[in-house]
Write a structure and sequence with these properties.
By secondary structure, the protein is α+β, with helices and mostly antiparallel strands. The protein has a domain of 132 residues: Protein Transport Mog1p, Chain A (3-Layer(aba) Sandwich). The chain is 30% helix and 22% strand. The chain contains seven helices and nine strands. A seven-stranded antiparallel beta sheet has the order 2-3-4-8-7-6-5, with helices on both faces. It has a two-stranded antiparallel ribbon with strand order 1-9. Strand 5 and strand 6 form a beta hairpin.
Length: 250
C-alpha cells in the first residue's frame, strides 16, 4: 500500500490594506448601474426640469446683498410702476362735480333778509362746482352765499355775498385790507383787490342796503368781470335761475 497523499495546496493571498471592508468588492459590484448622485441629477434634467444657471459666489453676493442688490430692487420696482402707469387707462374728464344752485337762489330770494343777487345768463363754458348758503333763518346771524365756478380758461371764480358788515366781510373775502383801484363793469364801479401770495384777484362793491358782493378767484379780472356783469337781482315773485351746464371736454 502506498502512503502517498495529495500535496497541500498553497494559496498566495495579497495583504489587504488596513481599514478595507471585507465585503467592499462585493458591495461595489453589487451596486446597480444608473444609481447615485450623478445619475439622479441626470434623471431630473431628463424629466423636463429646467437647468439652473450657475453663477460665481462673488456675483451672487453682489446681486443679492449690499448696495448693488438694493439698487437692482429699486430699478425693478420703478420699471414695474412705469409699466403699470403706461397700461392703466386714464380719462381727461373733469374731477370737480357740477352743482345746481337753483334751489339755494330760490330760498335766498324768498326767505332772505335782503335783496339777493345771483348770476343769470353766464356764457357757455362756465361751470358751477360749489354752492353754500349759511345763516338763513338763524336769528342774529348774517346770511352768506357762496357760488364757485370753473371758468372757460380753467381758472377759479367765486361769488361771495352777505349782509355782514362790509368792513369785516370784504377784507376777509378779498384777502386784502386795501383796494388797489377801481374797474367799471357794465357801468357800475367795482373796487379791485389783489393778493400776491395767493394769486387772488377780486372785484368788490357794497350796495346801499349794506349788502356786500365780492367776485374773487384765480381768474383774470376780465373773467371776473364777466361773472360780475351777469349778477342780477333775484325776483321774489318768480325767481328763475339757470345753472350753467358743464362744458364737455375730451
Amino acid at each position: 500500500m502506498s502512503d502517498e497523499s495529495p500535496a497541500p495546496t498553497t494559496t498566495s493571498e495579497q495583504p489587504r490594506p488596513s481599514g478595507a471592508h471585507p465585503e467592499g468588492d462585493a458591495a461595489v459590484s453589487a451596486r446597480p448601474e444608473g444609481t447615485g448622485p450623478d445619475a439622479a441629477a441626470a434623471g431630473a434634467q431628463g424629466a423636463g426640469q429646467p437647468a439652473s444657471v450657475q453663477v460665481s459666489p462673488g456675483l451672487y453676493k453682489r446681486l443679492t446683498t449690499g448696495l448693488a442688490g438694493f439698487a437692482s430692487a429699486i430699478v425693478a420696482c420703478l420699471l414695474l410702476v412705469g409699466v403699470i402707469y403706461l397700461i392703466t387707462p386714464r380719462s381727461n374728464k373733469e374731477l370737480l362735480p357740477t352743482v345746481d344752485y337753483g334751489s339755494q337762489a330760490w330760498a335766498l330770494a324768498h326767505n332772505g333778509p335782503y335783496q339777493a343777487w345771483g348770476p343769470q345768463g353766464l356764457p357757455a363754458g362756465w361751470r358751477a362746482t360749489s354752492a353754500r348758503l349759511t345763516g338763513l333763518g338763524e336769528k342774529g346771524q348774517p346770511v352768506q352765499w357762496h357760488l364757485g365756478f370753473l371758468t372757460p380758461s380753467g381758472q377759479y371764480a367765486a361769488l361771495e355775498e352777505s349782509n355782514e358788515k362790509a368792513k369785516d366781510y370784504v377784507p376777509r373775502m378779498t384777502n386784502s385790507k386795501a383796494a388797489t383801484g377801481t374797474r367799471a363793469v357794465s357801468g357800475i364801479t367795482w373796487d379791485t383787490y389783489f393778493r400776491r401770495d395767493k394769486k387772488a384777484n377780486s372785484l368788490a362793491r357794497t350796495l346801499p342796503d349794506g349788502v356786500s358782493i365780492v367776485v374773487v378767484g384765480t381768474a383774470s379780472y376780465d373773467e371776473l368781470a364777466v361773472l360780475a356783469a351777469a349778477l342780477k337781482p333775484l325776483d321774489k315773485n318768480g325767481t328763475s335761475v339757470v345753472t350753467p351746464a358743464p362744458t364737455q371736454r375730451s
